[in-house]
Design a protein that fits this description.
Elements (H helix, E strand, L loop, with lengths): L16 H4 L2 H9 L11 H6 L2 H15 L8 H15 L11 E5 L6 H20 L12 E5 L6 H11 L9 H14 L4 E5 L3 H4 L4 H14 L3 E6 L4 H5 L10 H13 L1 E5 L8 H17 L15 H8 L3 H18 L6 H5 L5 H15 L8 H6 L1
Parallel strand pairs: 1-4, 1-5, 2-3, 3-4
The protein binds adenosine-5'-triphosphate and magnesium ion.
């Protein structure tokens, strides 16, 4: 038997957004065992594997490379610090409103990834502190996560909540569903309600304002923290000031808006930048961490850090989503072709998202003229 045959680690559950939209799926995510790092074989050793063993080894490497992270990037660490502060300072007695947090940033910066990583830690800590069941004997679900879509109506939103909690009554009027959803939130003592991709609300023709008002109602009346995530949000964007279709009086709506706005903490996630040594070091650390994680037969120290740091910045424009996409596709090709290494030539043949491709030309020019670079002052002096 080959080394590659007997190291099939515990299979990680196949998680996707659909899975996370049910509480059991969320629990699988929280309790998923750590992936087992495949052993490192040289290119020669890989060539000597039987066809079956090589296929098994490549599958395990694909699974590994496709699921690198979440890495503790400075953006993720800063967000987690803020969120811990907010959550730890919100344990007032009684049913006090806890307000809302909004995380804003361009697509592909790792907002969802960082938020889910936080929610996972928070879930674990709450269960450890307070037990898996509430005092009333219900299952404790400290976190609930709902993703908005282009056409999410008020009814869809409430139904999604009911589905998350596996509430038996998933039929009924909008009001009935809404009531059941909020009952579940209360009885499961949920403390953090994550609403991802909030920007979709703004693109829908009707119904958006109604849900937005509902959020304001939840934020103001329920003992939980609402956590909005989306692109291009600001206070007005999060709360949608246009309240025209609500049945409340205009004065009451304005008061509610002000009240919620005052309790909303705005957080931002930004791309990596290279304007000073600190930022350059952060980028280089990310590239080094990624390099360390790669399992390729012809990998050598410095393969990414020495040769490709600037190139990878150009391609990804400092967006971790684009970087990881490039790395995943690069690794897939390096394994499939037997090259077993990453290089500029290989990456040049790989296309990624169009936003990154568009920005690439401009950055290319900046690197060529040395307006931009990834070497810190110390490294430049040394060379
Ligand atoms: N901390 C991290 N470690 C490793 N990979 C990450 C990390 N954060 C993000 N990624 C990678 O970037 C990809 C995009 O991240 P994510 O979906 O969280 O971005 P987003 O900001 O929510 O984007 P969108 O606004 O489009 O929803 C992920 O699929 C993952 O591959
Ligand atoms: Mg997202």
């Amino acid at each position: 038997m080959n080394a590659a045959d007997n190291q099939r680690g515990p299979k990680s559950p196949n998680l996707d957004n659909l899975t996370l939209s049910r509480k059991e799926g969320w629990r699988d995510y929280v309790e998923a065992p750590k992936r087992v790092r495949p052993e490192e074989l040289s290119r020669r050793q890989i060539r000597r594997l039987s066809e079956e063993a090589a296929d098994n080894y490549n599958q395990r490497r694909a699974d590994w490379h496709n699921n690198i992270g979440p890495l503790r990037t400075p953006q993720l660490a800063a967000l987690h610090e803020d969120l811990w502060d907010i959550m730890d300072s919100s344990t007032q007695d009684g049913n006090h409103a806890k307000g809302a947090v909004a995380l804003e940033g361009y697509p592909g910066l790792g907002k969802t990834c960082a938020a889910e990583a936080f929610a996972k830690e928070f879930h674990k800590r709450e269960i450890l502190r307070h037990g898996a069941f509430t005092a009333a004997g219900n299952e404790r679900w400290p976190v609930c996560r709902i993703g908005m879509r282009g056409n999410t109506s008020m009814k869809d939103f409430s139904r999604a909540l009911c589905e998350y909690y596996a509430h038996p009554g998933q039929r009924g009027t909008t009001i009935e569903l809404g009531q059941r959803a909020l009952d579940s939130v209360l009885s499961c003592e949920t403390r953090l309600l994550i609403i991802d991709d909030l920007h979709f609300l703004h693109w829908q023709r009707s119904g958006g304002v109604e849900i937005s008002n509902h959020f304001k109602y939840i934020a103001n009346e329920f003992p939980l923290t609402l956590f909005f995530i989306g692109i291009g949000l600001d206070e007005r964007g999060v709360l949608m000031e246009d309240l025209a279709s609500s049945s409340d009086s205009a004065d009451y709506q304005a008061i509610r808006f002000e009240q919620t706005a005052r309790r909303t903490t705005m957080l931002q996630m930004r791309p990596y930048r290279l304007t000073n040594d600190k930022e350059r070091r952060q980028w280089n650390t990310l590239v080094a961490t990624v390099e360390e994680r790669l399992i390729l037969g012809s990998k050598r120290p410095g393969m990414l850090t020495d040769d490709l740091s600037e190139y990878l910045y150009t391609r990804s424009t400092g967006h971790i989503g684009s970087l990881m996409e490039l790395i995943r596709r690069g690794c897939a090709r390096a394994v499939r072709t037997g090259g077993e290494a990453l290089s500029r030539e290989l990456f040049d043949t790989i296309k990624i998202d169009s936003a990154a491709e568009k920005a690439r030309k401009e950055l290319d020019a900046a690197f060529r003229t040395r307006r931009l670079h990834t070497r810190t002052t110390g490294q430049r002096r040394a060379s």
